[in-house]
Design brief:
Layout lengths: L6 E4 L5 H10 L4 E4 L3 H8 L4 E2 L3 H7 L2 E4 L4 H8 L5 H4 L5 E4 L5 H10 L5 E4 L2 E2 L1 H7 L2 E6 L2 H11 L3 E7 L3 H29 L4 H9 L6 H12 L8 H15 L7 H17 L7 H10 L16
Parallel strand pairs: 1-2, 1-4, 2-3, 4-5, 5-6, 8-9
Antiparallel strand pairs: 7-8
Helix pairs in contact: 1-2, 1-7, 9-11, 9-12, 9-13, 9-14, 12-13, 13-14
Length: 306
């Protein structure tokens, strides 16, 4: 293995594109592929080589990364006789950055060619984190595989080894579980304050300097104030992750009403505005029903431009 392993990267969307570009800019030889010609062109422009297919990228890679929206996309790319998994060479490493279903990760790992190792490493930190190398990556896999993955993933942000294969997805989904609860709740808090005479800017300042503070209050609230609700992540993807969380929750054997309430809030927003609407429409639904506005004047730079 060279100091700069050959990288294959598939999935150049909202998160994958910036991550792949960071690896290319860091000097790794990167072969990339995406179904979107425009996304591929953006990555080639910063030094990557265009692959002809996902399988082509896998065949050339020492370290192969996938960053895809949903588990079924991973299955479509990796599985089957012509899938990327079969093209991986012995001694290579597949790192799946997708927030995925563990059963699928385990299945694909069991079908990998001899000598191919697998790490699941979903990410958090939004688009600005992907652009600026300030993500948090939750890695699951054996220690030797993690030690190989960590130098590559370190260019993307902080890497946390969560345990064996699959634990990265569990930790990522737990963090999303808490995010969904907070995101569903902040609109309720804003509405309660506004309806009872508190100016929104004052309320936000107080929340951020109190026990009510959260990533949602710090990072996401400006997307509500600006009125775009952060289209970099859709309600459909929120509901996808909530379904994966519910699968994990079956092992808890206790009622988890906060998570169920959050799922209901996002489902209600999706039924109102469409599954493709921006994630924080979960707050807009409260605005519309209550007849209040959560617009706040300010220089709210969208996360994908930071």
């Amino acid at each position: 293995m060279t100091a700069f392993p050959r990288i294959g990267f598939v999935g150049l969307g909202t998160m994958g594109g910036p991550m792949c570009q960071r690896l290319a800019k860091a000097g790794y030889p990167v072969t990339a592929f995406d179904l979107s010609p425009a996304a591929l062109e953006r990555t080639v422009a910063v030094g990557a080589t265009a692959g002809s297919s996902a399988a082509d990228c896998a065949a050339q890679a020492d370290v192969f990364l996938t960053s895809l929206p949903r588990p079924d996309h991973v299955e479509a790319v990796m599985a089957g006789e012509n899938g990327a998994l079969k093209g991986l060479k012995p001694g290579s490493l597949w790192i799946d950055l997708t927030t995925n279903r563990n059963e699928l990760v385990f299945q694909l790992a069991s079908e990998a060619p001899d000598g191919v190792k697998v790490v699941d490493s979903p990410v958090t930190g939004a688009v600005d984190g992907a652009r600026n190398g300030k993500l948090t990556l939750f890695a699951g896999g054996d220690q030797l595989s993690f030690d190989r993955a960590a130098p590559v993933l370190g260019h993307l942000g902080m890497v946390i080894h969560c345990g064996g294969l699959g634990t990265g997805n569990v930790v990522k989904l737990v963090t999303n579980q808490l995010w969904f609860i907070a995101a569903a709740a902040i609109g309720e808090g804003f509405a309660t304050g506004i309806a009872n005479g508190v100016e929104l800017g004052t309320l936000w300042h107080a929340i951020r300097n109190s026990v009510g503070d959260s990533f949602v209050a710090q990072h996401d609230a400006p997307s509500i104030f600006a009125g775009h609700y952060d289209p970099s992540f859709s309600l459909d993807l929120c509901l996808k992750d909530l379904r994966l969380i519910q699968e994990l929750n079956r092992n808890v054997r206790a009622a988890l009403p906060m998570t169920m309430a959050a799922q209901g809030a996002f489902a209600l927003a999706a039924s109102r505005y469409g599954a493709g609407a921006a994630e924080l429409h979960v707050a807009r639904r409260i605005e519309d029903d209550a007849g209040i506005s959560m617009r706040l004047e300010g220089d709210w730079v969208p996360p994908w431009q930071q």
